[in-house]
Amino acid sequence: MATGTAAPGRAQIRERHLRTDRWWLAPAVTVTILTGFIIYSTWRAFANADYFAEPYVSPFYSPCLAENCDSMPMSANAPLFGDWWRLSPALIILIFPLGFRLTCYYYRKAYYRGFWASPSACAVPEPRGKYSGETKFPLIMQNFHRYFLYFAVVVAGILTWDVIIAFRDEHGAWGHMGLGTVVLLANVLLIWAYTLSCHSCRHIVGGRLKHFSKHPMRYRYWQLVSRLNTRHMQLAWASLFSVALADLYVYFVASGVFDDPRFF
Amino acid sequence: MSYKANFRVWRGDVDSGELRDYTVEVNEGEVVLDIIHRLQATQAPDLAVRWNCKAGKCGSCSAEINGRPRLLCMTRMSTFSQEETITVTPMRTFPVIRDLVTDVSFNYAKARKVPSFTPPEGLKAGEYRMQQVDVERSQEFRKCIECYLCQNTCHVIRDFEDNKEAFSGPRYLMRIAELDMHPLDVADRQKAAQDEHGLGYCNITKCCTEVCPEHIKITDNALIPMKERVADRKYDPIVWLGDKIRRRK
Fold first, then answer.
1. What is the mean pLDDT of each run of 10 residues along chain B (249 residues)?
2. Complex ipTM value
3. Chain center to CA of A182
4. What's the domain range around B128?
5. What residues pair up with B85 in beta bridges, in sequence order?
6. Are A74 and A165 in contact (CB under 8 A)?
7. B75 CB near a chain A CB, below 8 Å?
8. Domain count, chain B
9. Do A9 and B228 touch (CB under 8 A)?
């Protein structure tokens, strides 16, 4: 029996959809950019090389949770995984930002539309016959987004420390600044803005309350996060680009493609 | 300045139908509903269309224009080029009655399943006291004109007829959010949202927000906050424990 817009009782229209605008453009751009990022980050995560150029640490490799990392003075290393971990240390830490973005309410919209065509665009039919949304495993796990938020806050704190130690020169002396410092600083600001604008963060700081009047401070935080939250999509993309660019910058400096221009 | 526009309008009923071509005069400042009325007056006197206020406030003239769910009375002809053929069809999620008129009683049935505002026991009408700051968040949802464009565009029921039983749609999940955020409502809305109204089916792809003529941020301000509240109750043992200990609300 026909289903969807062809279900019995509905207006019998041959065309699956009648949209005449370029509805396919947004999902196509999403797929292109996300695929590009996945390819780039997979290469960099498995590379296990050129992620440290004193005083800069790539955000893909910070913090280092294994013992097989390069020596990175002052960076936030904690070899919790000991010496049995032989693969790239980036693979351990990247699980957390990856999980945060994978369960993010904005990215869910982006990849459901882009990769799963569920739906590709409004009023454009899905290519499948059954749909259970986020009611069953594995998609019911999207409800754990808040836990990834907690880890993301810790990771953002560590990346902030990486920016602080980037105010040194290549010999470790404080009070210096180079182009890499600016790149890492811009990245961490965007990471914080993206993290704090998260819908789960909005809920935790005050959205869950029924009586704002009884919690004036939390109401202020909620208002602040709500304002940021309206830019969550833009911040999601901006921080995705910035984290890749920050890593690429460290890679170029570490691999000797160019020297880091120093301001002072 | 007038010009002749090419229209394709779906004509038919529950048994059969087709897209029929018309050429209609368009004048400056007109909306699609004006053109449909001119069609009725000049070429198709039996064309069925539901309308009332012509001001985007009654929610009657919902349809699909060039495949996009919209109000006929709020879609300006100036948004289309003069050469463009404009296709008008009924909403494709609900059973058709005739031409552009659909049977939206699915929505009334879902509305009846949402228990009404439930004040604390012993609090009588006239004794309600609440602060503006506590009610203003849900006041956004009161702008809803019940045009059902969000219900129509939601792929959960548009593309899967079987889901109509389990899923109430964005309009009524927003109603549940409105009540759950109300400072004086004491009913348990969160479990019902997930278990009886199918909140888990929503994959937050935001089509409801995209088509809302009142520009209500349905997904960001109602559906996602409800999903988070449900996560508090069903998927977050830490919050559950915190609530048990501190009894916070």
1. 96 97 97 98 97 96 98 98 97 98 98 96 91 94 97 98 97 98 95 96 97 98 97 86 70
2. 0.94
3. 20
4. 105-246
5. B6
6. yes
7. no
8. 2
9. no
